[in-house]
Amino acid sequence: MIKAELKNYRQSPRKVRLVADLIRGKQVERALVELSHLDKKASLVLKKLVDSAVANAKHNFNIEKDNLFIKEIRVDEGTTMKRWMPGARGRAFPFKRRTCRVFVALDEKGKTVVEKIEKKVAEKKIVAKKAVKKTVKK
Questions:
Q1: Helix H segments across the chain?
Q2: What is the pTM of this model?
Q3: Measuring CA to CA, how many Å separate 41 from each of 10, 63, 80?
Q4: Cα–Cα distance for residue pair 114/119, rounded to 1 Å
């Protein structure tokens, strides 16, 4: 599972969830197209986050964008800033500025990423064993 996370995004989680629900479970290509045409403030931020997760997949696991889908997208509540609004006759009224945390997990269709990671680790172990054998012979 390839992950990317955005912390302390200054928009309420309720508004961001509306956009997140639209792309959950879709192919990455399809999700990026839908986000680019959506007229919501959170759509640009989620598009950047999905692009970041795709870059993580390409750099860390050499997985192409065509094979990925959005396995999980979660919008959690972040820190809440408490502020005051001035009112008439010297009064003040409290309000909350909410933030959220967004978590995206991508997965490859067909094969699981866990299998690829295990294969990569096994290859590294074989290379390490060969290096040890060479040093022992000398």
A1: 13-23, 28-37, 41-56, 113-137
A2: 0.76
A3: 11, 29, 19
A4: 9
